[in-house]
Amino acid sequence: MDEQLMDMMYNFEHLFLPRALFSNNQDLIDELNQSRDTVYVLFNDICVRMERDNPFFEEEFMVRYYQMDNIWSVIHVFFPHPPEAFLCYGMYIFFDRNLRRKGCYALERRSDTEEGAENGLLCSWDIKGQRAEHDFFDPKRIYAPIERALEIHSEAYPEVKKQPVETESFIANDETIVTVDGADPDDEVTFDENEKNDITEEGAVL
Question: Is this model's pTM higher than 0.90 or not?
Answer without folding.
Answer: no
